[in-house]
Amino acid sequence: MFPTELIGWAIILVFIISIISSAVRVLFEYQRGVVFRLGRFAMVKGPGLRFVIPVIDKIIKVSLRTVAMDVPPQDVITKDNVSVKVNAVLYFRVVEPEKALIEVEDYLYATSQLAQTSLRSVLGQHGAPGRGRARAARQNHPRRR
């Protein structure tokens, strides 16, 4: 009877250790943990050793570091019908992690799409870069034949 009793206690011990290990989360200084309790927003936890209730709580880590994101090259037609290809880099960081997760489905993708749309909109409102200066130079110094 002794070996079967020992196996039973070993199984219980492994079960308890697995529950405790799933309850412990480590958040680095640049991360925040957004805690959802039974699917509802509960709180934002700061850096350090954090405990969550297994099966009931889910913690999602959000980085607060500045993200450098490449905006794909955009072909833009300016106000004076000139085709221009523009590259850009986007720098941003999350300030409120709960809003980044709750109010937007995928905040990284949404930020990229907003940057592309804004870039096209702003460049479409302006003339081609350098064309205004070239035109002004031609007007001030007409060609002689």
What does this structure look like?
There is one protein chain. With 145 residues, the chain is of the alpha+beta class. It has 2 domains: 62 residues, no CATH class; 72 residues, 2-Layer Sandwich (Tetrahydropterin Synthase, Chain A). It is built from 4 helices and 7 strands. The strands form 3 sheets. Strands 3-2-5 form a 3-stranded antiparallel sheet. It is rod-shaped and about 90 Å long.
Q: Characterize the largest beta sheet: strand count, sense, and whether it forms a barrel.
A: 3 strands, antiparallel
Report the sheet-strand fraction: 25-35%
CATH superfamily of the largest domain: Band 7 domain
CATH class value of the largest domain: Alpha Beta
CATH fold-type name of the largest domain: Tetrahydropterin Synthase, Chain A
Approximately how much helix is present in the residues?
A: 25-40%
What is the count of structural domains?
2
Mean of pLDDT: 85
Dominant shape: rod-shaped
Q: What's the helix-strand series?
A: HEEEEEEEHHH
Any idea what the CATH architecture of the largest domain is? Answer: 2-Layer Sandwich
Distance between the termini: 114 Å
- Overall number of strands: 7
Kindly name the structural category.
alpha+beta
Rounded Rg: 28 Å
Instruction: Tell me the number of helical segments per DSSP (H or I, 4 or more residues long).
Output: 4
Low-confidence regions: none
